[in-house]
Amino acid sequence: MTADPYQTLGVSRGATEEEITRAYRKLAKKYHPDLNPNDPNAAKKMSEINEAYDLIRNGKTTNSQNGGYGSGANPYGGYRTYTGNTYRGSYSDFGGFGGFGGFGDFGGYSQSQDSQASGQDSYINAARIYINNQQFAEALNALSNCTQRTAQWYYYGAIAHYGMGNSTTAIQYAQRANSMEPNNQQYATLLYNLQNGGRMYQERSSHYGSPLGAMNSICMTMCLMRFCCGC
Amino acid sequence: MFGYIVANTDKLTPQQKELYKACYCGLCKTIGKRHGNFSRLTLTYDMAFLILILSDVYDIPLEPEDGRCIIHPTKALAYAANDITAYAADMNVALAYYKCLDDWNDEKNIVKLSEAKLMAQANKRISQQYPRQCLNIASCIYELANIEKAGITNPDIPAKCFGRLMGELFVWKEDEYAQILRTLGDRLGRFIYMMDAVMDLREDIQKERYNPLVSLTDVDYKILLSVIMAECVDAYHKLPITKNGEMLENILYCGVWSKFEAAQEEKGKKNK
User: Fold this and answer.
1) B262 vs A66: CA distance, rounded Å
2) pTM value?
3) I need a labelling partner for A54 at 20 to 30 A (CA). Which of A146, A196, A205, B27 fits?
4) pLDDT of the residue at B99
5) Distance between CA atoms of B228 and B238, rounded to whole angstroms?
């Protein structure tokens, strides 16, 4: 994307975070495909808006995983001051339906002709090394230094996010890599593997048939409950 | 945020239906007895799932007994309640209490503040008995509020946060099942958050409210949600389930999609 992100969102460079967010949401309301089902360009426009918002936000924040946000005294009182959570789930959680057994070893060194992109290359290579060592947070940090969002960037980002337990982002990134380079077998395989657990789950689900009938009876039951228990 | 972890009652046997309903009535009765009548309004079917699964894992009997509805004494009902029901009742009220406080902090909704005040005494008792779970609920809700305020665009961040909130509730005791239950609850929590975000997306965009799904493009929500459920059922299958497996799998494989499928059907009708 070559357009100026500030221009895309229609805000000045000195705009506050609140102003930028407000502008973003106003544009989302106008262009989001969900609200514009008949507009074939809506998705593309929304993509540009999202990318612009992300670029501006990442420029302001230091941490690529969570964008950084303040923590202060807990207003709920009675407990010790909340200082923030760093959750490191177990990577062995990704077994069975969910996992596809390790990411394999990433050998080789990526070399690019364009000297401007060599900075990009070194960050990508750093990310690759971190991923090999299961240091996914560090990999994401390395990737956040890249200025170009290439298919390769999305590919390694997908793996790092998956390692962090960010399955939704992982799949989004894998989709991007795959759509940018549809002939790349590696990218296609990653996307397939990430979604595979979901597919297997869906297959088992399908044996139950549609739960539509259930919705009505649950609703009725709960409505009756509320009615009869509503003091 | 609640009401997604429900059963597809059409696929339950009459006996299972009776137990499911009895679980709910037992929970209602227990909440009323332990925490007062007002707290009963916070009742959700999601806690019935917690009761069923923990009762099975810990082999605590859960049999429907005849009784009467406490509000309408002339109405005959079947109740099923055990020690897990008491735990679920406490968790139900704790969740409702912190949710009310959060709503008050967020929207300055005075009704929510007064509701919280009505549950404050109960919550104090509950947090003394279950400090681990209650501290966790409080900190996760606080963190979620911060995530929302910061406008975090990555949906996994708030989803994982809500996952941590739910995960801890599923750990009744710190024993050999704790980690599996924590993971199961965690993925269920992520699913609930994502599903809620999907259900609210349209309205959130229209009202210019926070919804991290706005940042996703070219999305197949069903596969994203299924990937989370796949991890959830992975954990489930590691548990020693012997009695209510059919009902639990009904919920995990089918019932959780009830609102989603209903919304799809609604959308399909509109587009015709």
Assistant:
1) 33
2) 0.85
3) A196
4) 86
5) 16
- Residue B3: Cβ-neighbour burial (10 angstroms; 0-12, 13-18, 19+): middle
Residue A212 has its nearest CB partner, among B28, B157, B262, at B262
In angstroms, what separates the C-alpha of B114 from chain A's closest C-alpha?
15
Q: Which is more confident, B197 or B44?
A: B197
Q: Are B122 and B97 in contact (CB under 8 A)?
A: yes
Q: Are B55 and B19 in contact (CB under 8 A)?
A: no
Q: Which two tokens stand for residue B2?
A: 């609640």
What is the pLDDT confidence band of residue B140, given thresholds at 50, 70 and 90?
very high
CA B46 to chain centre: 4
Angle between helix axes B14-35 and A212-229 (nearest 10 degrees) is 30
Determine, for residues B153 and A208 on separate chains, whether the beta-carbon distance falls below 8 Å. Answer: no
What local confidence, expressed as pLDDT, does residue B90 receive? Answer: 95
Q: Beta strand B76-79 with B65-68: parallel, antiparallel or unpaired?
A: antiparallel
Lookup: tokens for A26: 């106003």
Report residue B264 as tokens. Answer: 């799809």
* Closest approach of B203 to chain A, Cα-based (Å): 10
Distances (CA, A) of A219 to A213, A223, B29, B76, B107: 10, 6, 20, 21, 27
B2 close to B254: Cβ distance less than 8 angstroms: no
Chain A residues inside the 8 Å CB shell of B253: 201, 204-205, 207-208
| Model confidence band, residue B185 (pLDDT cutoffs 50, 70, 90) | very high
Q: How far is A82 from chain B (nearest CA, A)?
A: 7
Q: Do B205 and A212 touch (CB under 8 A)?
A: no
Tell me the per-residue pLDDT of B244-254, one tens digit each, with 9 for 90 and over: 999 999 999 99
Q: How far is CA A122 from CA A112, A125, A146, A156, B124, in A?
A: 10, 5, 9, 13, 54
Contact B67, B78 (CB under 8 A): yes
The enclosing H or E element of B186 equals helix B178-206
Q: What is the pLDDT of residues B27-51, one digit of tens each?
A: 999 999 999 888 888 888 899 999 9
pLDDT of residue A37: 83
For residue B233, the chain A residues in CB contact (below 8 A) are 97, 201, 204
- Nearest residue, CB atoms, A79 vs list B7, B135, B229: B135
Q: Sorting pLDDT into bands at 50, 70 and 90, what band is A103?
A: low
Query: What is the distance between the terminal CA atoms of chain A, rounded to a whole angstrom?
Result: 58
Which amino acid, one-letter code, is at A156? Y
